[in-house]
Amino acid sequence: MMHMTLYWGKQVTLLFDSWKTDSWLSYSLTLLACFLFASFYQYMEDRRIRCKSLASANSPSTTTPLLSKMGRFKPAKAASAVLFGFNSAIGYLLMLAIMSFNGGVFLAIVSGLTVGYLVFRGQEDEEVAVVDNPCACA
Predict the structure, then answer these.
(1) Contact at 8 Å (CB) between 84 and 77?
(2) Which of 98, 25, 83 is nearest to 52 (CA)?
(3) Nearest partner of 14 among 76, 126, 95, judged by Cα
(4) Environment class of residue 41 by beta-carbon count within 10 Å: exposed (0-12), middle (13-18) or buried (19+)?
(5) In the chain, what percentage of residues exceed pLDDT 90?
(6) Which of 116, 102, 98, 122 is closest to 40 using CA atoms?
(7) Residue 42: inside a domain
(8) Which terminus of the chain is less hemmed in, N or C, by CB atoms within 10 Å?
(9) Does residue 83 or residue 71 have the better pLDDT?
């Protein structure tokens, strides 16, 4: 049965038909996996932002981006693109997990994102990256 409202309980099907919980132990391990996966997302997002800043630091800044050379391959830019794709996949899987509408899964993912942000991206002494795009997956 697919829930369309938030529910609380130990029985949840998460992402795959074979990932079903039926006991408190399997449910707790699933919540732990969601928490760790969400924290890992924040870690990888930090790596992506650092790689992107490295790629932009190596490229000459121009005031006319349309006139810049597009044909040169840069490893840092390619790595940034790969990390973007990987992080997008993780983000969509987390969103699909939340769409199970289980309250515990929701809280585990949100708390994992919060703790991951605090641990991996919450340094105050580093420079602040300005993001022009308000999209969450950008």
Answers:
(1) no
(2) 83
(3) 95
(4) buried
(5) 50
(6) 116
(7) yes
(8) N
(9) 83
7 strand-pairing partners: 102
Three-state SS at 121: helix
Inter-residue contact 125 to 29 (CB < 8 Å): no
Mean of pLDDT over the chain? 82
The pLDDT, as a whole number, for residue 69 is: 55
Under 8 Å between Cβ of 31 and 105: yes
CA–CA distance, 30 with 20 (Å, rounded to integer)? 9
Mean pLDDT of 16-23: 91
The pLDDT of 86-96, averaged and rounded, is: 95
Residue 41 in any domain: the answer is yes
* Residue written as token pair 């790689």: 51
- 130 part of a folded domain: no
In which domain, by residue range, is 92 found? 34-58+72-121
Mean predicted confidence (pLDDT) in 104-129: 84
Is there a domain that residue 101 lies in?
Answer: yes
Q: Alpha carbon of 59 to those of 16, 31, 129: distances in Å? A: 43, 42, 17
Residue-wise DSSP of 52-103: HHHHHHHSPP-S-GGGS------HHHHHHHHHHHHHHHHHHHHHHHHTT-BH
